[in-house]
Write a structure and sequence with these properties.
Elements: H1 2-23, H2 29-50, H3 54-61, H4 64-81, H5 86-97, H6 101-126, E1 134-139, E2 142-148, E3 158-159, H7 165-201
Helix pairs in contact: 1-2, 1-4, 4-5, 4-7, 5-6, 5-7, 6-7
Organism: Telmatobacter sp. DSM 110680
Protein name: DUF1700 domain-containing protein
Keywords: Membrane, Transmembrane, Transmembrane helix
Length: 202
C-alpha cells in the first residue's frame, strides 16, 4: 500500500512538473530547469516536513499554468528592471499594470514620459530641417506655442530662441527620458521586493 502511494505521488509530481515546464514560455533552458527544480524541491520538502499529502500541496500551488504565468511575469519584470531599453521597460510596466492600480500608474507615467521626452528630442532635431516651423513663439510677453507647428506661426507672435532651441530641447528631452527610465526601473524593482516579501510571508 505504501509503495502504491509513493508511486501515485511520484506520478502526480512528475505530471505537474511536466505541465509547468510546458507552460513556462519563452525563457532559457537553464532558467526553466532552475524553476522546475525549485518547485520539485518545494513539493517534496513540504510533503516530508508537514506530512501533507502531495495532492493538497499541488492544490495550494495552483494549476501549473497559473504558477508558470507567475514565474514568467516575475522573470520579465526582473529583466526589465535591469534594462535601459524603453521597449523592455514598457513591456515590464505593462505586465506590472495587470497586477494592480500602482502598476497602471507606472505604465501611464512611462507612456507620457517617453512621449514627451521623445517629442522634445525630435523637435530639437527638426529645427535645422524646418527652422521656420520649429521653435518657441511669444506674443505680448506670453508663450503662444512651442515645438514643430504646421502651418508656421507668423506675426505678431515671434520666435525667441533661434538655434538655441536645438540644445535646449535635446537636453530637456534627454533628461525627461532619463527620468522616465529611472522611475520605471525603480518601480519595477520595488514591486519585485514587495513580491518577495509576500512570498516569504506566505
Amino acid at each position: 500500500m505504501m509503495t502504491e502511494t509513493v508511486h501515485t505521488d511520484t506520478v502526480q509530481i512528475d505530471t505537474y512538473l511536466a505541465s509547468l515546464r510546458t507552460h513556462l514560455g519563452p525563457m532559457t533552458l537553464s532558467e526553466r530547469d532552475e524553476i522546475v527544480r525549485e518547485i520539485s524541491a518545494h513539493i517534496r520538502d513540504s510533503a516530508e516536513e508537514s506530512g501533507v499529502d502531495v495532492e493538497t500541496i499541488l492544490a495550494r500551488l495552483g494549476s501549473a499554468e497559473e504558477l508558470a504565468s507567475q514565474y514568467s511575469d516575475g522573470l520579465l519584470i526582473r529583466q526589465a528592471s535591469r534594462s535601459i531599453s524603453p521597449l523592455k521597460l514598457m513591456r515590464g510596466a505593462l505586465r506590472l499594470a495587470t497586477k494592480g492600480v500602482s502598476g497602471v500608474i507606472v505604465f501611464f507615467v512611462g507612456v507620457i514620459g517617453y512621449a514627451i521626452g521623445g517629442g522634445m528630442a525630435l523637435s530639437g532635431m527638426l529645427k535645422p530641417i524646418l527652422p521656420h516651423n520649429t521653435g518657441m513663439w511669444v506674443q505680448n510677453g506670453h508663450l503662444v506655442a512651442y515645438g514643430t507647428q504646421f502651418p508656421a506661426i507668423g506675426p505678431p507672435a515671434h520666435e525667441v530662441l533661434g538655434m538655441w532651441y536645438i540644445p535646449l530641447m535635446l537636453t530637456a528631452g534627454s533628461l525627461t527620458l532619463l527620468a522616465t527610465t529611472f522611475v520605471i526601473r525603480t518601480s519595477l524593482r520595488v514591486s519585485q521586493r514587495w513580491q518577495a516579501r509576500l512570498s516569504r510571508g506566505a
